[in-house]
Design brief:
By secondary structure, the protein is an alpha+beta fold. It is built from 11 helices and 19 strands.
Length: about 425
């Protein structure tokens, strides 16, 4: 059987606080996205999702891309870059045009898209994403497909806008360009994770995606097929590693190793009998000989930090209104999807289920063929989502020309509840 022909190359690079990973994918003539090569290096020069040392970030990016190129057997020039730093703001605006019952033509859709562009008010920030999401016809909400050929008195469109501070984005783009790469676009990590981990039904019914990165935890709400709320705090899996290193006086590298091999979010009686060898650091900075701790001691440190992080996640979810109406008419609590490197920890789903009081599952990349097993875990969800985003040819309203005057309705504080109620009534 003949191999599918690759029509387009898509390269994604995720520059996190702990690792830099790259993926070269080929979009085949059958529409499938196949992985051709991957690369990974330890992150250098990043802190809490922001560039702290331009030169070191540039070097890590170059090494990672070169590794992916060797595996794929090709050279690339253009990349999609992920941004996982905090400070992101998600907003939804609605634009509307009067049609007087006429048949909807492509020109009407174009006018609406241009009107959506004019409605964007960045308020001193950079528009990272500005994408059309849902249409409304005479009050009928939740229309996904472009309604060309239908009749309406009023046609409205929800526009998803994601804003970010300009300086961190400029630093990230400069670091990638200094590695002799063209930047197709910078994609917010919550959008990429949603693309990689969520089913279409989950995006419709309403879920929360918690991306537990090394230095930043992002919480995003998805409903009605789009991202409708976003929060973040500057804490992540690397803080657990630091707590372990501090508690037992060992190096970070060893703390990370024992966290990955022995650590768990769930505690058991047998943990008091299982011993772990460690090498504490002496006062002169050298190893002070072998030492031992129980697995129970290790897991106690892990759970102490996780308790604080889950409390922050609960507070963020409550502030975003998650759960207030997402379960209306369903008799169930809305689900939480855990992804990111922190979601690799043993027992984290069970721990989060108890701490958050709702159903929890681990979000892994989906929708890609030939994905290496080493890159199939939640730590690589954002990377896979970047490739899927690049292959989807997303519409960006910022590239459209200005239009005439239209009515602009600012986002209501109950937008999330409005979307959920509309989709409950449609099911």
């Amino acid at each position: 059987m003949a191999q599918p022909r690759v029509e387009k190359l898509i390269t994604a690079i995720d520059i996190g606080s702990w690792k830099v990973s790259a993926m070269i994918a080929g979009k085949t003539d059958s529409g499938e996205l196949a992985i051709l090569g991957t690369g990974q290096r330890e992150s250098r020069g990043m802190r809490r999702g922001y560039v702290a040392d331009m030169e070191r970030v540039e070097g890590a990016v170059r090494e990672t891309i070169e590794q992916a190129e060797r595996v794929a057997g090709t050279s690339i020039e253009d990349v999609w870059v992920g941004f996982s730093g905090g400070g992101l703001i998600s907003d939804i605006a609605q634009v509307e045009v009067e049609l007087g019952g006429q048949r909807i033509e492509q020109a009407d859709i174009d006018d609406l898209l241009e009107a959506g562009r004019d409605s964007i008010d960045p308020d001193g920030r950079v528009v990272l994403h500005a994408q059309p999401a849902l249409f409304t016809l005479d009050g009928l909400t939740g229309v996904k497909k472009v309604p060309i050929g239908m009749h309406a008195n009023r046609l409205a469109m929800d526009v998803h806008v994601l804003l970010a501070d300009g300086a961190p984005l400029n630093n990230l783009e400069a670091a990638v360009r200094n590695a002799y790469l063209n930047v197709n676009g910078i994609v917010a990590s919550p959008i990429a994770c949603g693309l990689a981990c969520l089913t279409e039904e989950e995006r419709d019914l309403g879920v929360a995606v918690v991306e537990m990165g090394a230095g930043v935890t992002n919480i995003s709400l998805h409903a009605g097929g789009m991202l409708v709320g976003l929060a973040s705090f500057g804490e992540g899996a690397a803080d657990i590693t630091d707590d372990i290193a501090s508690a037992f006086g060992i190096r970070r590298s060893q703390a990370e190793r024992i966290k990955c091999f022995y650590g768990s979010a769930m505690q058991a009686r047998r943990d008091y009998r299982e011993m772990i060898e460690i090498a504490p650091i002496s006062s002169d900075g050298e190893s002070a000989g072998a030492g031992r701790i129980t697995r129970a001691e290790l897991n106690a440190v892990i759970c102490a930090r996780l308790a604080r992080q889950m409390a922050a996640i609960t507070k963020a979810l409550s502030g975003l209104g998650f759960g207030l109406s997402a379960s209306v008419g369903t008799g169930r609590e809305p689900q939480v999807i855990l992804t990111g490197g922190g979601a690799e920890m043993k027992g984290i789903a069970e721990y989060a289920h108890t701490a958050l009081g709702r159903a929890v599952r681990i979000g892994r990349p989906r929708g890609l063929s030939a994905l290496p097993e080493a890159h199939s875990g939640p730590a690589f969800a954002a990377l896979a989502g970047l490739a899927l985003y690049g292959a989807s040819n997303p519409i960006d309203l910022r590239s459209m020309v200005p239009a005439g005057q239209v009515q602009y309705r600012p986002r209501s504080s109950m937008m999330f509840q409005r979307l959920m109620s509309a989709f409950r009534s449609n099911y």
